[in-house]
Specification:
This protein has 225 residues and is mainly alpha-helical. It has eight helices and seven strands, in the order αααβαββαβαββαβα. About 13% of the residues have low confidence.
Length: 225
């Protein structure tokens, strides 16, 4: 997030600028959009209203644009690393990008695949290009997955996400109505696999539990000297 403002001692003006920023529409986290998309795929995208289906599809496409920026920025950094002599070590704190957004996924049971996605033809080569540049720059990546409770999503969290994208609520007079296949617990809709591969391909290491960051940082210090 970049905020371009002149420095000022006027706290009222600064407060107004922040309030204006907070009131603007936001797309939501890429991971949340992806989880919601595949949850809707499990239930059947055709069951959404046309407006909700369009809204969700548009937000997923916007998420892919954010992912494009993510890869391009990191690739530029890797190219710049080549100009720095010697061994480098990159400590990367991130939630990563959903594997399914880049490489695709399948929803539903094996015998009935309600949604099949081969991945994005733009994001896949961007991902591979980034890995090659980091490997060429002699810069192993130590990834710290910053997700809290990575595979657990509360039912109310799901409800808020449905409302945010214009979909129907998960609750009805009869009780809970959404599918219990639970896409929220599928690692393919999180950034875990992408971060893990990022570290593996560059000779670094992936750390999944951000709550143990002190212990993990000590491990990195021992590995790198």
């Amino acid at each position: 997030l970049r905020i371009h403002e002149f420095l000022t001692r006027d706290r009222i003006k600064a407060g107004e600028a922040l309030a204006d920023l907070a009131s603007k529409d936001i797309a939501g986290r890429t991971e949340e959009i992806e989880q919601l998309y595949w949850q809707a795929a499990e239930e059947g995208l055709e069951n959404l209203t046309p407006a909700a289906r369009y809204n969700l599809t548009w937000k997923r496409q916007e998420a892919k644009s954010l992912a494009t920026n993510y890869f391009e920025a990191l690739t530029s950094l890797a190219k710049a690393m080549r100009l720095v002599d010697g061994q480098k070590h990159f400590l990367f704190f991130s939630t990563g990008l959903p594997y399914s957004l880049i490489f695709g996924a399948v929803s539903g049971q094996v015998e009935y695949r309600s949604k099949f996605d081969l991945g994005d033809p733009i994001l896949r080569p961007l991902s591979e290009g980034m890995l090659k540049e980091f490997s060429a720059s002699n810069c192993p990546v130590f990834s710290f997955d910053t997700r809290q409770a990575a595979k657990v999503q509360s039912l109310f969290g799901y409800e808020e996400m449905r409302e945010a994208t214009g979909g129907g609520g998960a609750f009805s007079a009869a009780g809970v109505s959404q599918s219990q296949t639970d896409a929220f617990r599928d690692d393919k809709t999180t950034g875990q696999d992408v971060l893990r591969r990022f570290s593996k391909e560059t000779g670094g290491q992936y750390f999944s539990n951000i709550a143990r960051f002190e212990e993990n940082l000590e491990t990195v210090r021992n590995l790198t000297g």
